[in-house]
Design brief:
With 53 residues, the protein is α+β, with helices and mostly antiparallel strands. It is 43% helix and 19% strand. It has one domain (7-52). It is built from three helices and three strands. The N and C termini lie far apart (27 Å).
Length: 53
C-alpha cells in the first residue's frame, strides 16, 4: 500500500509548476510562491496543500 508524501521536494515542485529554480526564488522573494519550509539539513519542502492552493 503506497502512501503519498504531503511534502514535495523543490525539484518536484518546479517540474509540476513548470518554472526554473531562479524563477521560483524570485517568486518566493516577492511573496508569490507557495509557502515553503526549510528542513534542518537545509533542504526546502513545499506542502502539497500549499502548492494546490
Amino acid at each position: 500500500m503506497a502512501t503519498t508524501c504531503p511534502n514535495l521536494k523543490l525539484p518536484e515542485v518546479l517540474t509540476e509548476i513548470g518554472i526554473s529554480r531562479a524563477a521560483f526564488y524570485r517568486m518566493r522573494a516577492r511573496g508569490k510562491a507557495p509557502k515553503t519550509m526549510k528542513l534542518p539539513n537545509g533542504q526546502i519542502r513545499v506542502r502539497r496543500r500549499d502548492l494546490d492552493a
